[in-house]
């Protein structure tokens, strides 16, 4: 049954409201402790990829579970996995306490797994040693998404300090352990634990704010289509000096077919893909260049406004190419070359349809009769939120009060494919995509960090939402 709050005569929150000051005082009193917890989590290199030690993931899950056990507010705090095709997924943390006295139930989601560190030489500080400087804390996972974990923790502790441990709001915790590896068992986990995860509101703390000072609610996410391809021209390698000029090595058709994916202006050239119109926010070319580190002499690509291009239009990136490195190169015609293509799709685009359009384009543009083979794929649906519900209205109110600036609605060019699973398994739940990152967080990149003031304000905002939810009655 969908929760509908009774009308209230309470005035809208603002930064000077007594409850806002009370919540902020609670958050600030424990902030150093929360940062210590974040540092503890950052030190654990929990990576859900097969090439990395699964014991680190287990340690990460246990550390997160212990943090939520120490709150003392949950009936159960468990570490669980789901199994798909006979292979268990990464450990996730599941905790729950039921709602009482007609209050709503809120599910808080984040993930404790992280991306691999990449090239250590590019990091200015050790990847798995939390380092504070210039108002930010650096380390792999400091922003994405261990900050989301501690934001949930801080909000719960603030609610407990204000309303007491026997508060009425229902809360479930789901801290996933394989988001960075594609959430392979996510849907199975939802189905197996549906009763404990069912909620009126789902807060996904895995996005960003417009800036450390301006909060945002993410209402749009592009979907994802990933396709690996192999191009073959010969049975085996041959000497480039003996046969070059007459025989096409696999690199020639591969480069040409990949180049065909964009037109002369850099727009995606695959026909039939959909776009979604976004109005531009006050975000200049200078902002784009600074945030992306675009070199001064390099021009932008595509057509339309900046927000439209990065949120509402498809984009294609070749994210992998299997060829000999320059250091290992030889005078050889390569018989085969493989690549991985990442296509981001706009809201309203079906991933399966987009995959077929991409494949049709590749087939039509492969030159010299080269053999084109399709390998593994990955797909994820785009997301467009309905912001008319009470939870979205309350979220923007609490974000605005916590940050002292009006909250805005933004899109994200990236993808969170599992949100489609949440909407399908829990169709009556309102989903709020929030976050603690900002444009300089560099998630997935070296020197990842989170802005400490932005993190504190995000904690205040979520705590305000929980406190308000605890006072709502259906």
Strand percentage lies at 15-25%
Top CATH class of the largest domain? Alpha Beta
Could you say what the CATH architecture of the largest domain is? Answer: 3-Layer(aba) Sandwich
How many H/I helices?
A: 14
Number of strands: 20
Q: Major sheet, described briefly?
A: 6 strands, mixed
CATH superfamily grouping of the largest domain: Zn peptidases
* Rg result: 24 Å
Which key features would you list for this structure?
14 helices, 2 domains, 4-stranded antiparallel beta sheet, Alpha-Beta Plaits, 474 residues, 6-stranded mixed beta sheet, alpha+beta, Aminopeptidase
Quick structural gist:
It contains 14 helices and 20 strands. The protein has 474 residues and is α+β, with helices and mostly antiparallel strands.
Layout of SSEs?
Layout: H1 18-29, H2 31-42, H3 54-69, E1 76-80, E2 83-84, E3 87-88, E4 92-97, E5 105-111, E6 131-133, E7 136-138, H4 146-163, E8 170-176, H5 186-192, H6 194-197, E9 201-208, E10 216-221, E11 223-232, E12 238-239, H7 240-243, H8 251-259, H9 285-292, H10 306-312, E13 315-322, E14 332-333, E15 336-345, H11 351-365, E16 371-380, E17 383-384, H12 390-403, E18 408-412, H13 418-425, E19 430-437, E20 449-451, H14 452-471
Parallel strand pairs: 5-8, 5-9, 9-19, 10-18
Antiparallel strand pairs: 1-4, 2-3, 4-8, 6-7, 7-20, 10-17, 11-15, 11-16, 12-14, 13-15
Helix pairs in contact: 1-4, 1-14, 2-4, 4-14, 5-13, 12-14
């Amino acid at each position: 049954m969908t929760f509908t709050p009774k009308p209230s005569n309470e005035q809208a929150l603002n930064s000077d409201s007594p409850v806002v000051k009370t919540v902020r005082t609670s958050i600030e009193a424990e902030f150093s402790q929360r940062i210590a917890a974040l540092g503890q989590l950052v030190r654990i290199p929990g990576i859900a990829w097969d090439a990395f030690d699964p014991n680190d993931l287990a340690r990460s899950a246990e550390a997160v579970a212990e943090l939520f056990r120490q709150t003392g507010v949950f009936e159960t705090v468990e570490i669980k996995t789901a199994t798909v095709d006979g292979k268990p997924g990464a450990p996730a943390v599941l905790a729950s306490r039921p709602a009482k006295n007609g209050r709503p139930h809120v599910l808080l989601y984040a993930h404790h797994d992280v991306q691999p560190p990449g090239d250590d030489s590019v990091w200015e500080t050790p990847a798995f040693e939390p380092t504070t400087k210039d108002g930010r804390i650096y380390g792999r996972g400091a922003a994405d998404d261990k900050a989301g974990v501690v934001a949930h923790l801080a909000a719960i502790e603030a609610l407990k300090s204000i309303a007491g441990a026997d508060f009425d709001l229902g809360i479930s915790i789901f801290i996933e352990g394989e988001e960075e590896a594609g959430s392979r068992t996510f849907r199975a986990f939802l189905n197996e634990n549906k009763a404990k995860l069912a909620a009126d509101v789902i807060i996904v703390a895995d996005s960003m704010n417009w800036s450390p000072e301006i909060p945002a609610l993410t209402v749009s996410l592009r979907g994802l289509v990933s396709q690996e391809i192999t191009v073959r021209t010969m049975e085996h390698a041959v000497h480039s000096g003996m046969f070059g000029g007459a025989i096409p090595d696999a690199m020639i058709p591969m480069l040409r077919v990949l180049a065909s994916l964009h037109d002369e202006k850099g727009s995606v050239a695959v026909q039939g893909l959909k776009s979604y119109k976004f109005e531009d926010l006050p975000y200049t070319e200078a902002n784009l260049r600074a945030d992306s580190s675009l070199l001064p002499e390099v021009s932008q690509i595509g057509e339309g406004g900046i927000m439209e291009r990065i949120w509402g239009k498809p984009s294609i990136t070749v994210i992998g190419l299997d060829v000999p490195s320059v250091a290992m190169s030889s005078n050889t015609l390569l018989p085969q070359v493989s690549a991985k293509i990442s296509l981001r799709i706009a809201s309203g685009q079906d991933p399966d349809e987009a995959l077929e359009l991409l494949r049709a384009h590749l087939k039509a543009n492969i030159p010299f009769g080269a053999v084109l083979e399709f390998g593994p794929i990955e797909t994820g649906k785009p997301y467009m939120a309905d912001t008319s519900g009470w939870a979205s209205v309350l979220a923007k109110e609490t974000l605005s009060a916590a940050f002292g600036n009006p909250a805005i609605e933004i899109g994200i060019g990236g993808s969170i494919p599992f949100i489609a699973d949440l909407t399908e398994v829990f169709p009556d739940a309102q989903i709020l995509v929030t976050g603690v990152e900002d444009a300089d967080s560099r998630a997935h990149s070296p020197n990842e960090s989170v802005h400490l003031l932005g993190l504190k304000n995000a904690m205040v905002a979520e705590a305000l939402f929980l406190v308000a939810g605890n006072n709502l009655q259906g």
